[in-house]
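Predict both folds.
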Amino acid sequence: MVLATSVDDVTAASSLPGPTTLISTGPRPSFLISQLAASSPLRATLEACADQPMTPNSFAFAHRGAPLQFPEHTRESAVAAARLGAGTIECDVTFTKDHELVCRHAQNDLHY
């Protein structure tokens, strides 16, 4: 696994083979929709969208990438989020003891 250690890594990840315009959500959205009550108006609305083409959306945010598919804050997770249609990939930024910026959710594992 390659960790994204700089903005350049994430930028380079966007040039990996396979266009980000081909979005694949996998089974999870359908599973979540199926858990709604059968009489739910929201379920009916979401099911009506099932066959519509998906396109990337700059308003769709991916917090820490695509953590259900890859470890958070990794290059692979950022690429997966883009391929899922996220227009913005956001991460939690913190400093290490030597004042380097890193994307991490928690600071308690950085050993100050």
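Second protein follows, with its predicted structure tokens after the sequence.
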Amino acid sequence: MRERIPKVARPFPALCPDWRATSLRQVQRDFASGRKGMRKGLTLLVITLLLPLLALTPGSEASEIEDLFWSRQWSALESRVLSPGTQLSPKDRVIYANSLWLQGRWAPALEIFLEERDSVPEDIQPFVDMLILLGFERTGSPRKAMDVALSLWSEEDWVLAPYVAYALGRLYLNEGQAAEAGRWFRAMAERAKDTSLRKQALEALLKLSDPDPGFALALLEIDPFHRGALSMIRQDPGPEDPSTAFPLGYAAFFSGDYQGALTHLERVPLEDPRAERAAFFRARTLSNLGRGDEALQLWKDLALKASRYSQSSIESIS
């Protein structure tokens, strides 16, 4: 009999209502389809860990501890847990540990996760290990955190891989091993499915000494107005390099520097996948500079092509 998820207000979707019939891959697929609004890393891990645990007790109604957790009544939950004579199941203890984690009480949460790790389903244990890793890091045990991270790393686990890689990057950087940190930040950037995580990895790479300008160009694909990345590509590879033409022109256009935008956008090579986009913004730039005839010709050319800018160009002409 499937356990009924408690009907209390909560800001997270039920990713996995019945763990007994669900694999880790299903959790990953459900997470991928329902992660909107859940992109804060630690909360993501806590909830992805907790929801399957809600189904560990078959055929029972939601416990008082679960209700208190979902309604975020932390004081009442702690009083219930610490009441003399209270008998807690492993599930209840893990739920309590999650409540401590959400309050930033890392040490007591870590203690419970360490004690109960082996009592949770095997496919859930990597999520517990991730919280143990972060718990060690936040309570001043970086070597233990690194050991957990290295044992947890798996290229195939695309849900946890970016978080594990980022943790290893931080830990190695704190030890002064910048090259090794860079290797893990690159691994994070390569495996992150979420643009916010990829951006975080690229920003970390740009903070290292002598960063590859390719990281700045990749970051500008995500955040076109990133000041640090724009400043970097102006120096290396420089404004004359074709790879910088579109990002510098696009940023100049939206900053109101139309002459600068025109200079850069005119240099975008035809073989660049952003060539039509560059032509569209070049037309807008010419229009803003009072050169309407030239803008009109560009819009006409784009309107006749079966491209994503055809309709926008027709509207601009009209």
